[in-house]
Structure formats: C-alpha cells, structure tokens
Design brief:
Length: 368
C-alpha cells in the first residue's frame, strides 16, 4: 500500500508537470511578449525539482519538526526584508534577488506556515477539566496563538501587496484548525467575526484590488481595463469547446489577446487548445493527487505527519480551485498560480518540495 501511494504521487505529479510544460511551450511559441526561454527555465526547474523530490522522499521528515520554528522565523525576516529592500515590479514588492536569481518569500511562507502549525498543533497542551478558566486557556492556546502565528505573515504579505496569498494562508490555517480537536463553535465563531469585518475591509484595499472585485461582479464595466483579462480568458475557454482548437492553434493565445497566459491564466490556454476534454483530464489528475494525499493522512500515525499532510492537501486544493474558478470568472482575480503548471520558479519548487514530504510520509507509519 505504501509503495502504491508513493507511485501514485510520482505518477500524478509528473503527468501534471508535463501538461504544464506543453501548455507553457504553446504560451511562449514564437511570441514576442512571452519569451520562449520561460519554457526551458520551467523544464530545468522540473528536472531539479524531481531530484529534490526524490531525495526528500529518503530523508526522515521528522527532522523538520525541530527546525519548524527556526524556518518560520527566517521566513518572517525575509518577508520584512522584501518590504524594505525587495525588487519592485508590476506595482508590487514581492521578490528578493540574489546573484541574478529572484524568488518570492511569500511562496516559502506557504511551506513554513504548514510546518510550524503542524509542529504547534501536534505539541499542544493536554485538555484541562471543563470550566471557565480551562475554556479560556483552551481558546488562548488552541486558537489565538496559532491565529497570531498565521496573521503575522499574512499582514506582511498583504503589505507587498499580495491579497491572494494572504487569504490563502488564512485558508490553510482554517483547514488545519478543523483537523484539531478544537470545538467547532469556536472555529465558526472566528469565521463569524471575520465575515462581520469584511465590509470594513473595503477601505484598506488598493485601488486595483477594488477594481478586480468590481469587474468580478460585472466585467463589462471596464472591458478594456480591469475587465479585459477575464473577458479574454472566458472567450478562450469557451472557444475551445469539447476537443479544443489544437496545440499551438489557440487564437486568443497565439494572437496575444490573453494577458498573463503563462502564469495565472495558463488554464485558459489549456481550455482553448485542448477543450473540455483536456481541461477535465488536468482537473482529474489534481483530484487523484489530492485523493492519494488524503490516503497518506489516514495512514500516518504521528500527529505532526498528519497535520503537515492536511496542510499540504489544503493549499493544493485551495490553489487549484481558486485558480480554475478565477480564470472561468467564478472567483475574483487574486493572482494565484496553478500548481505545477503556471510559470514561476518559487511556486513550482515549493509545491515540488511538498510532494517530497508526501513521498516521505507515505513510507512511514511510526509513532512520533
């Protein structure tokens, strides 16, 4: 069973990566706006990533338990450094450049948050006898402390600004919180407070973030501005119909009507060129990968391993659902990549590392 799960993780991951490379080649094919070297860059990342994934599958994942808090602290320092001296591009300050190579600490935060919440939840204080003080302590230790751990990087990432990733971190926290023994009434109480604060959050959003929310409700209010991308994305997906227009034959893609087609809107390229059949094949592979990951969570015996697996499943599921829904106009545009498919070294390698953790977890059932 353990070998079968590891084999499935490898198979589904490789197949998704291959589909992504095929789509990236098309998105950059004889195109002045999207250089062809992004395909070779992603191909190199894939080869390096598979090596990393293989060796992570051999290392005892429990070693990361001891380093989770240090990893988190270093990540917070990197996020602070981004705000002070990071590279500014496309209206945001999200990148650190070292030796000509840039990376996004916000992508690293996804992994560091999963590890530190996994370590914290697996080492919580035992339940105290029922009573007012014990209930107060439970709320403090089981809810407020992990919430604070999550909110700190959320705030720093929101200031870059990157609203999509900040909200994604909160989603990871919620899913992992549900996996604990905390009573649901406290979790839903927290959600109620967050929902009540939503109307007041409007005033702290950047102008372009407000525009994205408005065009989500009605893209035609600014068809040549904020609504242009989502309109072109829906045209691309709809024109693919059942079987698609064929590889390298998508008009919205090849004629440069579709912006950001190599990053956030790569799923639109797949929908246009491979149709409903191709899009469903990719979504099915994601589903199979997520399902295999959940089976790993059911088999792992130690709490840290369970929480880390739940966190990885949470971020993979959330990011796939949000990205696919976003390019189809079902969600506002929040700038989240499609795992293993969209171009981006930082995002790609972080998800590959997560798959390496799953490989490692699939081989172990020891009590921690």
């Amino acid at each position: 069973m353990k070998r079968d799960l590891a084999k499935k993780i490898w198979t589904y991951t490789v197949m998704i990566v291959v589909i992504g490379l095929v789509a990236l080649y098309s998105a950059s094919y004889e195109n002045a706006r999207v250089p062809q070297n992004i395909f070779y860059d992603q191909l190199f990342c894939a080869l390096v990533g598979f090596v990393i994934m293989y060796f992570l599958g051999k290392v005892d994942y429990r070693k990361f338990y001891d380093g989770a808090y240090i990893f988190y602290a270093v990540n917070i320092l990197l996020l602070v450094f981004v705000l002070v001296g990071g590279r500014h591009a496309l209206g945001a300050r999200r990148w650190i450049e070292i030796g000509g190579i840039s990376f996004q600490p916000s992508e690293l935060t996804k992994l560091s948050l999963i590890l530190i919440l996994g370590a914290y939840f697996s080492d919580r204080r035992p339940k105290l006898p029922y009573g007012f003080f014990s209930r107060t302590q439970m709320i403090f230790w089981d809810l407020l402390i992990p919430l604070t751990i999550t909110v700190v990087p959320m705030f720093l990432i929101f200031k870059q600004p990157d609203l999509g990733t900040a909200l994604l971190l909160f989603g990871i926290f919620l899913v992992m919180l549900f996996a604990t023994a905390l009573e649901y009434r406290y979790i839903f109480g927290l959600l109620g407070v967050c929902l009540a604060a939503v109307p007041f959050a409007w005033n702290i959003l950047k102008p372009y973030q407000k525009d994205r929310l408005l065009v989500f409700l009605n893209p035609n209010i600014d068809p040549l501005g904020a609504g242009y991308t989502i309109i072109q994305s829906k045209i691309a997906i709809g024109s693919g119909q059942i079987f698609g227009k064929g590889w390298l034959s998508g008009t919205q893609n090849q004629l440069n009507f579709l912006p950001e087609r190599h990053t956030d809107f790569i799923f639109s390229v797949i929908g246009e060129e491979w149709g409903v059949i191709g899009a469903l094949c990719l979504v099915t592979l994601y589903f199979l990968l997520i399902y295999a990951s959940l089976n790993i969570a059911n088999q792992v015996k130690d709490k840290f391993g369970v929480f880390v697996t739940v966190g990885i499943v949470a971020i993979l599921t959330l990011q796939v659902v949000i990205n696919v829904g976003m390019v189809m106009g079902l969600f506002p545009i929040v700038g989240l990549t499609l795992p293993f498919v969209s171009y981006g070294r930082s995002s790609f390698l972080i998800f590959i590392i997560m798959m390496g953790f799953l490989l490692n977890l699939s081989k172990r059932r020891t009590i921690f």
